[in-house]
Amino acid sequence: MTQSTTSKTRIIFHADMDSFYSSVEVRENPQLKGQPVVVGSDPKNGTGRGVVSTCSYEAREFGIRSGMPISKAYKLCPDAVYLRVNMKLYKDVSHRIMDVMRGFTDMFQQVSVDEAYLDVSDHVKDCVVASRLAQNIKDEILLREGITCSIGVAPNKLVAKIASDFQKPDGLTVVKPEDVVDFLTPLPVSRIPGVGKKTTDILLGMDIKTIWDLAACDVQLLIERFGKYGIKMHQMARGIDHGEVVERGDVKSISKEDTFDEDTADPYVIEQVLDSLAESVHVSLMKKKFLFKTITLKVRFEDFSTYTRARSLRVYSTDLETIKIIAKDLMREFMGKRRFRLLGVGVSNFETIDVRQKLITDFL
Ligand code: TTP
Ligand code: MG
Asked: What's the 295 CA to ligand 1 centre distance in angstroms?
């Protein structure tokens, strides 16, 4: 009875905790309630070099955001409460919240430390009942763990995800199947998951600002500009998504590699490529909201001989600079006269929730 087909109207929830790390910190220390709280690296009175992991909604009013340099956050709001990341605590809370949600359906998919999809098609018959169920889940999480979350209810994962973000924090947004197009079309294209700044800028150059503009655009133009992803974007703009809610095995490593157009031994080119590989790895890492402990370097010489080297940190990290520095350090033993055909950079040994592991290598 848990089968869900594309012909049947599905009811999918996407739940995402509000300002997760900082909400946990506030829960631990209720005196912080209502204050701007920033979780991340040490601001060192404005000279710190790390980034903001997240911040409370009060801190967001000052313009502070995840991923922002901590020094910039400090400039925007020196009086905020600055806290270091306590990953063990957040993971414990995350485990318990996921268990609460798992109790509502067996079609469950955790996607990061603070978000999950639930397919409740077999449990509720319409959106009114679904809305009540979503409210129950919100209440249960608040009661048991003291954390608010936002839930999107929709006929598929894509629209549910956009809906959960629609009225954050403490939101509940229900999008009925007949309302999907009206809900999506006025939104900016950047609301589509995966459409980041770069894609948004390219679309802007094509005079595409809203999801309506994207849906109305000739798919051929999108294919010319984005390849296969153009088709996917066009479908998403029309609210189409057949992805199923399935609990997946965890990612074991994230790596990117690049084959040179021409084999090279040029230290400048090599440094540039390693930096750019590290940046791509870091983007994937941030999307998955993972911390890593191990950095790996792969080199292939012009004769195809291939070597890998790895180094592990003592503590988990999300830091891009660390990936860059260690990748370049690992590279040193290979530098010389021989030319390289390919370089790869990876991270692994993640701080994750589940233990089933699967190797994913994304080739550039
Ligand atoms: P998000 O769900 O993206 O953000 P959030 O829960 O803090 O806030 P929102 O209310 O907008 O959902 O990420 C979940 C946690 O993952 C977040 O609390 C901290 C961590 N994280 C980082 O460490 N770095 C990042 O760049 C992002 C985006 C998240
Ligand atoms: Mg969140």
From this structure: 23
Candidate list 25, 58, 115, 257, residue with the active-site label: 115
Ligand 1 pocket, Cβ-based, cut-off 6 angstroms: 16-21, 53-54, 66-67, 113-115, 168-169, 286, 289, 318
Q: Which of 41, 289, 291 has most ligand 1 atoms within 8 Å of CB, for mutation?
A: 289
CA distance 133 to 123: 9
CATH 3.30.1490.100 given to domain 253-357: yes
Whether 12-19+88-182 shares its CATH topology with 185-237 is answered: no
Q: Which CATH architecture has domain 185-237?
A: Orthogonal Bundle (1.10)
CATH code assigned to 12-19+88-182 = 3.30.70.270
Q: Rounded to the nearest whole angstrom, what is the distance from the C-alpha of residue 154 to the centroid of ligand 1?
A: 22
Q: Specify the pTM.
A: 0.72
- How remote is the CA of residue 125 from the centroid of ligand 1, in Å? 32
pLDDT by residue, tens only, the chain of 364 residues: 333 444 578 999 999 999 999 999 999 999 999 999 999 999 999 999 989 999 999 999 999 999 999 999 999 999 999 999 999 999 999 989 988 898 888 788 999 999 999 999 988 889 999 999 999 999 999 999 999 999 999 999 999 999 999 999 999 999 999 999 999 999 999 999 989 888 999 999 999 999 999 999 999 999 999 988 999 999 999 999 999 998 766 667 799 998 898 999 999 999 999 999 999 999 988 887 788 988 989 999 988 887 888 888 988 898 999 999 999 999 999 999 899 999 999 998 887 533 323 333 332 2
Q: Was domain 22-86 assigned CATH 3.40.1170.60?
A: yes
Is residue 115 flagged as an active site residue?
Answer: yes
- Cα angle 90-95-101, degrees, rounded to a multiple of 5: 125
